[in-house]
Structures
1.
Amino acid sequence: MVERADKTSRARPTVRWMIVGAVVLVVVLGAVTGGFRFLGERALYATGLWIDGGSPTIAPGTFDQPPDPAALPVAPGDPVLATATRASGLNAEQVTQSLRTADLPGGQLFGEVLDAADGRVLFDANGSGSGTPASTQKVLTTVAALQLYGPEHTFDTRSVLAGNQLWLVGGGDPFLTRDELTQHGQQAAAALKQRGVTQVQLGYDTSLFTGTGWNPDWRGTYTNMVTPTSSLWIDKGLVTPSVDSVGVREADPSRKAADVYAEALRGQGITVNGVTAQQAPASATEIATHHSRTLSDIVEQVLVHSDNDGAEVLFRQIGRSGGRSGSIADAQTATRETLQQLGVWTDGMKVVDGSGLSRENLTSPNTLTRAILAASQPEHEKLRPLITGMSVARAEGTLLNRFVEDGSQAGRGLVRGKTGTLTNVHSLAGLVPTRDGSMVVFAFIVNGEQDEYRTRVWLDRAATALATCGCRG
């Protein structure tokens, strides 16, 4: 609750001590359980009272007697972070020297750093070579989807009717929930009643995407990490909804969605005389539509949580572009062609899936950095959710629990990136302001290092080295 400006000063000490008490409480809770040490920190981050390695975000004396209102400054204070500029002039040798402060991991390194001002290469370690990217592949999937559909696009789940035959038509909404589908069923029931229809045969249509839902290049052990891709499901096909997409899957996610929809119809007094999988005719009349969240929001969800299911649905949506059928092969072709049109494709790459689960994917740092660079440019505003969707170091998503080791902590709150992790495969791609206010784009892929933790720490330290670099020369 925010204290109104017109409250008397007598009310302020009570509110002030309430705030002090809350802060003390979260600090104590965080200190009591060592395993949850960051609890107190996270709470203080949320209140704006803590910034690792930074200046206090509250002025000394804040909890003293309130000052005379006439003495308060009227001009806004300095920003917490200086605005990054697009001025060129970064020195490649200094950037390389800065990266050398982080001990290189074993295995094979593919890396590149660009000056965001002019696209100049500042660091190149086989940057045009292609390695297994793991989940940084999602950078390419989301940028291709944004390029093809635009950030405001939605994927619509529809109810269509012909006589007493009703169809639930999947539109490839990756994050359709049980509650949303229930509400859609209730809207469809109201539309049926308006037409005097009180009993229906129900069909569910999953024809938007063709071919197998399970990518043949995925390992069989990935069944708890991704659902066979479908244009119709609820809660990503998970038995128990989870933001990180890990868990047991429904045996038939599309049928489960149809059953939930049928239940919603029955709850509104509509008799459902059977549920079958079948394609709706083009002549059927649309009676209700549920719009997904915007593609911008979907992209941000896919990136910040590294959502495999969402990425694979977007991959198939890419495969629907240009009149294609939405098969895996169509998605592979359309992704490559879109990246070529954007001018970011590198010869020698290979696109197998949208999530990066397949080890057969081959991606170059050069393509990752140029895709991110394009999304940061004013002329590519529709690609901007690629930037806003990346996790912030030690603040959210897949970077929430990163940047904890010595040599990486200064990157907290500064590095914005997309992670990638498979066994013996680690990657990080993103952008970060340097100490002197410039902006750099980076991508690092490490394949084959047996020490998983060492590799991950190196990626954090390398990104931090860029953040702390005074590299204008």
Note: The chain has twelve helices and eleven strands.
2.
Amino acid sequence: MAAYENITIEKGMYKPGGYGLTEALEKLDPSENYIGTPLEGLDAFERQLKRFDIRVSGPGSDRIEKFFQRAQSTALFPEYVSRAVHQGMTQADVIDDIVASKTQIEGMDYRSVASVPTDSDLEIRQTNENVTFPETNVVLQENLIHLRKRGRMLCASYEALRFQRLDLFTVMLKQIGAHISTQLLNDAITIITNGDGNGNAATTHTVATNGTLAYGDLVDLWSYISPYKLNTIIAPTTQIMKMLNMTEMKDSYAGHNFHATGKMITPLGAKLIHAPAMNSAKVIGLDKNYALELVQSGDVMTEYDKLIDRQLSRATISAIVGFTKIFTGASTILTVTTS
């Protein structure tokens, strides 16, 4: 009998702080032991799904009640929920496009480091013999970064869901993940705009164009963020529509790319991120490689006790996440006025 078939699974394998079942299973049943076998490519959790013959995707997916037919397979259900929600967050394809670094911590507070280079620090100068090199100072931030819990509540009875196919339920859970991702995007916009409490709010430039964003304004945005690279633009619906209607968007490679793939990119090469809840008069430009750090305490968290006990009604699914600015100059804001 294979090692993965001898593991005893119980709710105690879920750890506080959002660390899921897969981590515990991998310690007991490392995936590296399956290299060169028919099970290569499956992680420890997926091997448990195979063990209990639970199919979570495809037209032949099982019903939700399949998880609850055995005591040990019941303990797999919260991890399945967390994974599906995480897939939805990833497929939303927003957070990965705006953060330079991701940090996992334990707890709710975090103190980051920062470097605030001057114009002379950014210059590449010749250093003569017996002359010291220019310095880059990295300092500990004065104020802590406070993480927030963002999530949704799953409201359904086990009786209502037990006969539903897991493939369909996965789609619903992915939508919860997409909602969480949108909440995190709004948090990131707040940090870019106002700073993280360490006096590092983004510089704002006013564009007085009677409320009409012009291509020249995007060129100005490109120049404002220099020497960083303008590779991401975050904008609300109103400003996104104006950009997509620019002649340059219609006739350039950017327009052709949008028509072919649906992915929005400006003629300047910056990817457009749609933020419907954002202030309608603002446009954020940033260098995603240097602007933000995402700080997360654990992974996607589910109330595993409720899910294991079939108490799906009002079971929360959440993530504890915060953002901190790395280089203040790597993001800037255009405010489009009507006068």
Note: The longest strand covers residues 292-302.
3.
Amino acid sequence: MLHWIKREAIYLWYYLDIQLRQIAPYWALGIVLGSAVSVFGKKAIHQTFANLGRKKTDWLGVIPASLLGIASPLCMYGTIPIAASFSGQGVKDDILAAFMMSSILLNPQLLMYSRALGRTAVAIRFVSCFLCGCVAGWLIRLFYRGRPFFDFRAFHEGANRDTDPNMFLRFLKNIWRNIRATGPMFLLGIVLTALYQIHVPSDFVGGLFGKDNGFGVLLAATIGVPLYMCGGGTIPLLQQWLVDGMSMGSAAAFMITGPATKITNLGALKIVLGWKRFLLYILFAIAFSWITGVAVNLFVGA
């Protein structure tokens, strides 16, 4: 028994060390970048979006809105109060939807984390999240013209925690908050990946999510709903799954439904959508992720 425990500990430490060396630099860079955007760029991003929303826009107005959503460093519970404020200023729901959808899926910090998956995965993640925001805005413009889609009455803008008069100290405090918020899930992802490498055969993931398994994309899109922890926590697992044969399309599907259906995001969205539109949102996220995964496998390859 002691021999088995010692062997497991050695294996675990070996794989933990590998994962930390591979992933930790991207996590650290993501923390710094996310804090820099939050402290030095958030105000400019939101002012740009407010100016966009006040203009009379056509169908193309969702494009810059989706890009600004990706650039925004806020989580969903921070994005919704901001969106509520913009709505009160007259910003239309299609513009808000594009901004909120892409903001749910991606931010500068998570984009930097994703560098650990390779350049192709980063490009696919950025483009698919951007397009998802655009499509969400276009659908609301098409089907909800003249009717409200969001109900922000239960939300108000929270207090800003980046208030230290010294900008450098404000930046350091933001970094520390980011470390506390993402560190536990990042370490959990590292541990789970190490345990997976020790105990799960390498051909298991390839059989489930490989390019030749058309059902794999739908399965990846579906398991993203209950299994997603946070961006930092899933990157180590995704990296290993890709090594073990997961197709890029299945990974793309997981990277959309995961953040789109994260429990904290769903809790916030349920409040502003109501049950009917909330269910439409879930169906949209799964359908878009499946279509994206199939397209990636078809045109990009595994």
Note: The chain has a mean pLDDT of 80.
4.
Amino acid sequence: MSQYARVKELVDGLEGDFEKFYDKGNQAAGTRVRKGMQDLKNLAQEIRVDVQNIKNG
């Protein structure tokens, strides 16, 4: 799976929890949003390292 597809899949998977947390005040959904955002941060770091490695050849 391409790196972009992984990011998109992660973000799309969080959509429902964002709505539940921000629109309905569901605290458990907020926890899932926080975890998903941490996963996104880690994935972004992996991609940054990968891009740098490819760039440096």
Note: The mean pLDDT is 96.
